[in-house]
Design brief:
35% strand; 14 strands; alpha+beta; 31% helix; five-stranded antiparallel beta sheet; OB fold (Dihydrolipoamide Acetyltransferase, E2P); elongated; 300 residues; 2 domains
C-alpha cells in the first residue's frame, strides 16, 4: 500500500506524482471566470472582426510596409461612401494605370475629406513586383483608416484572457500532481480596483509554513471571497522545491477535494456537469470560426 502524506488536520494525500482525473483537468484549464470570459470575448470579437475586416483590409497594412513601386495612373470615377471619419466624408476613387510593358490594371482607393477630378493624373503605388494590389499615393485601400485596427482588439483581448487562464490551469495541474498539501491562515484581505459582475475583487493572502520551516504566503484574487473564508484554515498545495509557488484549493474552478483514496477529485456531481458544460463556449468558438476560415479562405 502506498505511503501517504498527512497534514495537521488528518487529511491524507497520496505521494506525487498523482493522477488527476481528466474531467478535473478540463475544469482547471477551461473553467473559471478568466477562461470562460476569454473564450466568450474571443469568439464574439472574431465575429466582429470578420464583419469589419473587409472594410479595414488589414492585410494591406502588411503589404505596403515594404518597398513600393510607383507609376502614373488616371482617375476614372469617384463617389461618396456611407462612412464618415471625424465628421468628414470618406470618398471612393477608382483609377487605372499601365506598367512599362503596357499591361493595364485597375484599382480602388479611399480618402477622407477629399476626392479627385475624373481624368486627373495620379501617382499609383504598389508592393514591389505585385501590381495586383495598389493605391493612390497618400490614400488607402479600405473604407476605414487606422481606426479600423480596433477590430483586432476584441479577439486579441479575449486571447490574452485565454492564455492567462491556460497558464493558471497549467500551474494548478502541476501543483496538484507534484505539490505538498498544507493549510494556510488568512492574514490579509485587500479590495482591488477590479470588479466582476459588479462585485469587487479581493486579494487574499494566506500564511503557511512549508516543510523547510519557513513561512510563506499563498495569494488568491477573487470576487467571491466567502469561499476562502468559510474555514479557519484553508487547504493549499505548494511546490516543495519553491514554496512561493502555491495555490489554494478553494480558489480553483473545481474546488477539488481529497477523496478517501487520498487523491484529488470533484466535490460533487455538479462540478462534473460544470466541467462538461464549460467546454460549450470554447468548442463552439473553435468549430464555428474554424468552419468560417475553411469556407472563406482555405477553399479559395
Amino acid at each position: 500500500m502506498k505511503e501517504i502524506e498527512k497534514t495537521q488536520n488528518q487529511t491524507y494525500l497520496t505521494p506525487s506524482p498523482r493522477r488527476i482525473p481528466f474531467l478535473l483537468l478540463l475544469r482547471l484549464y477551461c473553467g473559471g471566470f478568466t477562461n470562460q470570459f476569454g473564450w466568450l470575448f474571443f469568439g464574439v470579437g472574431l465575429i466582429f472582426f470578420w464583419i469589419f475586416e473587409p472594410i479595414t483590409n488589414l492585410k494591406s497594412l502588411y503589404k505596403f510596409s515594404g518597398e513600393l513601386d510607383k507609376v502614373e495612373g488616371l482617375v476614372l470615377s469617384w463617389e461618396e461612401t456611407n462612412i464618415k471619419e471625424n465628421n468628414e466624408q470618406v470618398y471612393f476613387i477608382r483609377y487605372s494605370f499601365k506598367l512599362p510593358n503596357g499591361q493595364q490594371y485597375f484599382g480602388e482607393s479611399y480618402s477622407t475629406g477629399e476626392y479627385l477630378v475624373v481624368n486627373s493624373p495620379v501617382i499609383v503605388e504598389y508592393p514591389k513586383g505585385d501590381p495586383s494590389i495598389s493605391r493612390i499615393e497618400g490614400m488607402r485601400t479600405s473604407k476605414l483608416g487606422i481606426l479600423g485596427i480596433f477590430v483586432v482588439f476584441f479577439p486579441m483581448a479575449g486571447l490574452a484572457f485565454i492564455i492567462k487562464g491556460l497558464k493558471n490551469g497549467r500551474k494548478a495541474h502541476r501543483l496538484l500532481k507534484w505539490g505538498k498539501l498544507t493549510h494556510g491562515q488568512l492574514n490579509s484581505k485587500v479590495e482591488t480596483n477590479m470588479k466582476i459582475n459588479k462585485r469587487p475583487v479581493y486579494k487574499l493572502s494566506f500564511e503557511f509554513i512549508a516543510e523547510d520551516g519557513t513561512k510563506y504566503n499563498a495569494i488568491a484574487k477573487t470576487h467571491l471571497p466567502k469561499y476562502l473564508e468559510d474555514e479557519k484554515q484553508e487547504r493549499l498545495v505548494y511546490d516543495p522545491t519553491n514554496p512561493v509557488n502555491s495555490v489554494l484549493l478553494d480558489s480553483l474552478p473545481a474546488s477539488p477535494i481529497i477523496d478517501e483514496t487520498g487523491n484529488f477529485n470533484f466535490a460533487s456531481n455538479i462540478e462534473i456537469v460544470k466541467a462538461i458544460t464549460g467546454l460549450i463556449v470554447p468548442i463552439s468558438s473553435l468549430i464555428g470560426h474554424g468552419i468560417y476560415i475553411y469556407n472563406n479562405f482555405l477553399l479559395k
